[in-house]
Design goal:
four-stranded antiparallel β-sheet, binds flavin-adenine dinucleotide
Length: about 400
């Protein structure tokens, strides 16, 4: 598919920078959406239940998505990526997550949390070393910010980095790290000067596996069970001085800016899960009869479907708007938080309503509704909880409306 995009761009089909309407996508974006939708229907939806039940990392599918350009959508072609924009990335994550919420998480972490900060803050040597192997799906990266003692309060990081000769020596425990059992590198945040609080945090690139780096047990999770999540433990983990990402003390800024973009990815993942829950409910409403007619004829069911559709579509427009602002290099912190908040709440709502439409069949694993309900829940927690999104939105609003 990456080759298809190159051909399309040569023909001037991309049009991504001149997008002026939320109502209709440019042709290249429609292609990206359709290609990912077809792949998700064919390769992901049929096996998502098995991946979930058996906690299986979708290694083959991730390699295929790499070949399609989906593991590095925004990365320039010279570095092995698809050379597209963030709107294209959002569309890809939504469609992949519609097929499998776990695979959507793997795609999102690799694109926005691992590659994203290297692309934005890395030197050209760092980009050459740490990006191309992670564009193909052969390798995936992860992002280690949270700690057992601080998640929302990420500025209180207690993992330490001290300089010894030509090396940084890292010590501490990072918590909840998505992809980590399957990853080949991580961006780690550690404090180089505790007295400076969040301004003393720096970012580092660490290969995996690596001496001094070990992993905790895989968490047994409610949803996205095909992804690995675990503690990442650093005990005298030595890396070259050149593995610092960005200037010393800029780690908190790097983390926050990375999460701004990452939230568009999670909003897109949530949209895919929400859409899958709605699709499942509409299909069942057509097929299931009660009292002599399809339940879709009942107004009570119609109202549920309508409310789900409005929640998904409005969250989708917010998500596209946030992506378009990012692509236009305009401020998008507030819009990304709005997108994540509304899409994650839409996903939870649609997961809940979908089970209700399916009745007893919604409650068992024969149907995907219960998985969508479980997968949806994480989107309200990681990359900033819904409470933190509300704080971000209100903080931006108060700045905008200074009397
Ligand atoms: C499956 C999974 C995958 C994850 N993947 C990653 C990853 O790849 N990398 C990574 O670094 N982290 C990851 N995380 C961590 C995730 O980002 C944190 O769990 C999240 O930010 C919340 O932090 P916490 O769990 O410490 O909750 P806390 O910060 O302890 O929050 C507990 C509750 O208090 C509320 N709260 C906290 N502060 C405030 C406030 N100021 N105002 C209002 N309410 C507040 C929260 O909203 C929440 O309801 C993952 C977590 C999970 C569960």
């Amino acid at each position: 598919m990456a080759a298809l995009f190159k051909a399309g761009k040569a023909l001037g089909l991309c049009g991504c920078r001149s997008l002026s309407s939320l109502a209709e996508l440019p042709e290249m974006h429609q292609m990206m959406r359709q290609t990912c939708r077809d792949y998700a229907d064919r390769e992901l939806a049929p096996i998502a239940g098995k991946l979930d039940k058996e906690h299986l990392f979708p290694a083959r599918q991730v390699r295929e998505l790499g070949a399609m350009g989906v593991m590095a959508v925004e990365v320039p072609e010279a570095l092995g990526g698809a050379g597209m924009d963030y709107l294209a990335y959002s569309l890809a994550v939504e469609e992949i997550s519609r097929g499998c919420g776990s695979t959507g998480c793997v795609v999102s972490v690799n694109n926005s949390l691992y590659i994203g900060p290297i692309l934005k803050f890395g030197t050209s040597e760092q980009k050459d070393q740490w990006i191309p192997p992670f564009t193909t799906g052969e390798k995936v990266g992860c992002f280690a910010l949270s700690e057992p003692g601080n998640g929302s309060d990420a500025g209180a990081a207690s993992t330490l980095a001290r300089q010894e000769g030509e090396e940084w020596v890292l010590n501490g425990t990072k918590a909840w790290i998505s992809n980590c059992w399957d990853a080949s590198a991580t961006v780690v945040f550690a404090t180089t000067d505790k007295s400076l609080k969040h301004k003393g945090i720096s970012a580092f690139l660490v290969p995996m596996p690596h001496p001094g780096l070990s992993l905790g047990k895989k968490e047994d999770k409610l949803g996205i069970r095909a992804t690995s999540t675990a503690n990442l433990i650093l005990e005298d983990c030595r890396i070259p001085l050149g593995n610092m990402l960005g200037p010393r003390g800029s780690g908190f800024k790097i983390a926050m800016q990375t999460l701004d973009g990452g939230r568009i990815g999670i909003a897109s993942q949530a949209l895919g899960i929400a859409q899958a829950a709605l699709d499942c409910a509409v299909d069942y409403a057509h097929k299931r009869t009660a009292f002599g007619a399809p339940i879709g004829k009942l107004q009570a069911i119609q109202f549920k479907l309508a409310d789900m559709a409005v929640a998904v579509e409005s969250a989708r427009l917010l998500t596209w708007k946030a992506a378009m602002l990012k692509d236009a290099k305009k401020p998008f912190t507030k819009e990304a938080a709005m997108a994540k908040l509304s899409a994650s709440e839409a996903a939870t709502f649609c997961g809940h309503q979908s089970i209700q439409v399916l009745g007893g069949m919604g409650y068992v694993t024969d149907m995907p509704a219960e998985r969508h309900y479980r997968d949806a829940r994480i989107t309200e927690i990681y990359e900033g909880t819904s409470e933190i999104q509300r704080l971000v939105i209100a903080g931006q609003l108060l700045k905008e409306y200074v009397p």
